[in-house]
Amino acid sequence: MPHSNRKRNLNHHKRLEVTDSSGWTHVTAGGKSARRALRPTQQHHDNPEQGEQSQILVPAEAPAQLNLEDLQTQFWGYRQRWEGSESWRVVERALSSATVKVDRIVCIGLGSPSGFLKGGWVDRRSVSMYQLAGLVSVVDLMSESFVLDLLPFYRRVKKSIPNLEVFAQDPVFNTHDRFLLASLNITVLDHPHGFEKVSPSTLLYCPGAERTHLEQLLSHAPALVFGGPLEDIESDAVRQFVESRLSVRISRFEDMEHAFWNMRVYSPEEGEQ
To answer: Where is the composition biased (Basic residues) (predicted)?
Structure first.
C-alpha cells in the first residue's frame, strides 16, 4: 500500500495565556481557533505582526437559548450551595470580626457567569457563578454593618439610607452578565473605571485579577481584600501589602475546589484599623 508524503494534521491544542493591551489574561486553546476568538484593534490591522502579540479580549458568548430568568435560577442554586459551605462560614467570621469600615465593594476579574468564547476558550461558567455567589454573600453581610453605622445620622436628617456601592469590572462580561449583575444591584464598569473606585475604605474582591492589576489595586490600600492567594504573587508591591495585613485562609470548597483555591481574607493589623 503506497505511503502518502502529506503531513498529517495532528490536532494537538496547547493551552495559551492571551493577554490584551490592558493586561487582562485568559487561558485559551492554541491554533487558528484561538485567534478567531479575538478581535484585533485597528492598529493591528495596519501592523499584523503586532496584532499577533497583543489582542483584545471580547465579551463571552452565551448559549443561544439562555435567558435572564434561567440565568437567575442557576445563580440562586450556586448561591445556596456556597452559603451552605464551611468555606463561606470562614469568610463570614473573618469579615464580621474586622472592625475596619467600608463604603463600597469592588470586584475585579470575575469572568463570565453565562458564556464562553468560540474557538477554544476555557468554559469556566461554574467557577464564575460560584465566585459571583461569593461576592453577593459578602455584599449582603457588609451591607448590614454599613446600614447600622449610618442609621443614627440618617434618622436625624430624616433621609433614606443609601445602599452600599458595589462595582464589577471584567472585559469578558456580555449582555447576559450585565443584566444578571444589575439584577443583583451590582454596577458594571469598563476598564479602567473599576480601578478608580478602589480606596482605603473599599473591600476589594479579586478572584481573577492579574499581577499587574493587583499591584495597581493594592497601591490604593483597600481596607479589606478577599482573593488571592497574594502570597503566590512575585511582586514587591504585593508582598509589602501582604506583610502589612493579617489574613485568614478559607477552607476547601468541596463543591468546586478551584473556584476559591487557597483564597484568603486580608484585613489590617491591629492598630492600623
So the answer is: 1-15
